Amino acid sequence: MQAQxxxxxxxxxxxxxxxxxxxxxxxxxxxxxxxFRVVDIAVKAxxxxxxxxxxxxxxxxxxxxxxxxxxxxxxxxxVLNRLGLNIQDRIKPQVVSTQVITRIDPYQSQLxxxxxxxxxxxxxxxxxxxxxxxxxxxxxxxxxxxxxASIKLIHVTSVGRFGRMWLSGSEAEIITARDxxxxxxxxxxxxxx
Length: 193
Description:
The structure is a single chain. The protein is α+β, with helices and mostly antiparallel strands and 193 residues long. It has 2 domains: 3-89, BMC (bacterial microcompartment) domain (Alpha-Beta Plaits), CATH 3.30.70.1710; 94-186, 2-Layer Sandwich (Alpha-Beta Plaits), CATH 3.30.70. The chain contains 6 helices and 7 strands, in the order αβαββαβαβαββα. A 4-stranded antiparallel β-sheet has the order 4-5-7-6.
């Protein structure tokens, strides 16, 4: 996990707090109630710690993390094995929308700042809004964007029909972040929904 991304997750999670440099696994599933059983499987079988366990009407999502990338990978393997699945059974992520908004107006930045949980959006900055499906993949996209560009993480939502991220910075850095996030999502295998 990159520094801003880990800090953001730490501000919204109700479970074990992650820190920069940890590895994380996100699993999204339907029906949502399966999350309770699957988190139990993951944490009992490995040293990975649960950070999030969310159940919505249609979907459930959980996150586990560890300082050991091997433990996180093991948690993923244990979960897939118990569910009778393999990595190729996952749904391939799709970028649903991207918007680059240059020179954010002061009034719009104030509206956005009311709903953010990360950094403040400053008037005049460029903002990236990106959505993907399934929603949990947005966590991977934002972490990869932060690796490649000097940006500010404004907000991430990774539960529901679509995952959504808001990033800000210079126009050039936002374009770099957008391209990195898209490349990251497009590089993942999976079944088309």
